[in-house]
Amino acid sequence: MRILIAGGAGFVGNNIARTLVSAYPKYHVVVVDNLSTGIKSHVEDLLPRKNFTLVEGDICDKDLITDLFEQFQPQIIINTVNTETEHEGIKTFIDGNHQLLMIAQNVLKDLQHYICISSDEVYGESESEEGLLRPGLETDALLPRTTLAALQAGGDLLTTAFHYQYGTPTTVVRTSQLFGPYQIGDKLLPRFIRNALRNEPLLIYSDGTHTRDWLFIDDFVEFIDALIHTKPELRNGEIINVATMVEHSILETTQLVLTILNKPKDLIEFDDSKKTTTKRRLMDASNAQKITGWTAKTNFKDALKSTIDWYLAHTS
Questions:
Q1: Largest CA distance in the chain
Q2: What is the mean pLDDT of residues 217-236?
Q3: Pick from 62, 183, 236, 267: CA 20 to 30 A from residue 294's CA?
Q4: What is the domain range of residue 99?
Q5: What is the mean pLDDT of residues 59-86?
């Protein structure tokens, strides 16, 4: 099996790549990453492996991707490219995704699966007919609350459109809040862990009662493994929510970080001037189990402790 991971030096792609390279020595994994947010050192230990190749380049570079596809002929493409800035959102979620899909359509002879990694942010907050907040379903209308999430939703729609218009074997995967080793940037958990290690304030917007569903990266990688080995007729054209379906408030999560690190709770500060755009982000992940047999297995506290241990080992 030939697998190409776009953005494979980033948090999600890196974890997927190292698992597939180790678990399937007969598969060949190519990572393409422009290293703007991905970190080369995070995949350097994979470079000696005969079934791993790193290509430094941008997925918006038409000539590069065309040459790479013609030479490597990937059977599975996993697009994990992400951004935390609105400025890069169009390039990342729209232009880059479209480039991969279009070139794959024109060049690849045996494309078996195109996986687009998205997130729960595209739903905003789903409501029942009675106006009550409820877990998001794959069939829900997309009502993103931020411009960046709106651009990500555009990438989702573009991917499924290729399935319906061209028959491209796509799957859109929407994850809850991922966390774990190799995660950097300004996401809440890595930021709070870094701040706690430095004895710096952990700033919570509003009162901290808003909730999130935290999904450990190891569990998510297990899902991707199951998905790429699922029968095509079950996965092609699907949108699949991947989540634990267990909520934790931001305040509860922050307190747990401090407890594990044995840091004082007075590091927590509140900023009432900023409100969260979504009070509750929760998805129904029963479709993931139905299609692949997957369910999240890792206890949140254990996963958080494992993640913190990684930061302790990698923070000077």
A1: 59
A2: 97
A3: 183
A4: 2-182+214-245+279-297
A5: 95
Q: How many CB atoms lie within 10 A of CB 171?
A: 25
The two three-digit tokens of residue 282, written as one number: 């929760």
Of 1, 37, 46, 39, which Cα lies nearest the Cα of 19? Answer: 46
Q: Does 176 fall in a domain?
A: yes
Domain count, the chain: 1
In a domain, 141, yes or no: yes
CA 48 from chain center: how many Å?
A: 26
Q: Measured between alpha carbons, how far is residue 70 from residues 103, 117, 147 in Å?
A: 10, 24, 35
Q: Which two tokens stand for residue 158?
A: 């573009």
Domain membership of residue 126 (yes or no) is yes
What CATH number should be reported for the domain holding residue 7? 3.40.50.720
- Nearest C-alpha neighbor of 82 from the set 188, 155, 24: 155
- Is position 274 within any domain? no
97-107 and 62-72 are packed helices; what angle lies between their axes, rounded to 10 degrees?
40
**Token pair in block for residue 133:** 């907040």
| Whether the predicted model's global pTM rises above the 0.85 cut | yes
Residue 3 has which token pair?
Answer: 């697998």
